[in-house]
Known about the structure:
The protein has helices spanning about 5-20, 35-45, 50-65, 70-85, 90-110, 115-135, 135-140, 140-155, 160-170. By secondary structure, the protein is mainly α.
Amino acid sequence: xxxxxxxxxxxxxLAGWARDVVAQPPVxxxxxxxLAPALVDRLYLHRDQGDNLVRSRNLLEERLxxxxxxxxxxxxxxxxxxxxxxxxxxxxxxxxxxxKAEAAAYRxxxxxxxxxxxxxxxxxxxxxxGQSQGLVSSxxxxxxxxxxxxxxxxxxxxxGRAHLVLGEMYRRLPAxxxxxx
Length: 181
């Protein structure tokens, strides 16, 4: 009986949600929705399935060839490039993808100054780039990442992922660089 056990009820709800998310069929692209943000977001949501991240990147780059000032496409491209960088095999490939992600997301943040996601992905791209370069090289990136996450939180105080980035950064940094448990 689920009715009397809140933990069991939560488990059933989460299992249903997971079934709905995980059991999605592969994302297909119709020509009518080829560049729609909703499709790119679906590809990103299912990024672990097949070549969805690469497909997302291709669609976004196609969109940006048509309109290089599309801030929504730029931050989504930054997000996609960050994830592709995380999966890259070599340090050089990671660094290249993170640099491209940073450029795209920073441009999006300039074009969309009130968009929390643009600011967030600009900060994440910078952080990933710093991680790929090592602690000493990335020490100069701490303040810019803090400023970017503060910008995100000024736009959306409840942006949980920005809080998570700051918390992880403070936890991992040595005290001499501003870290704190």
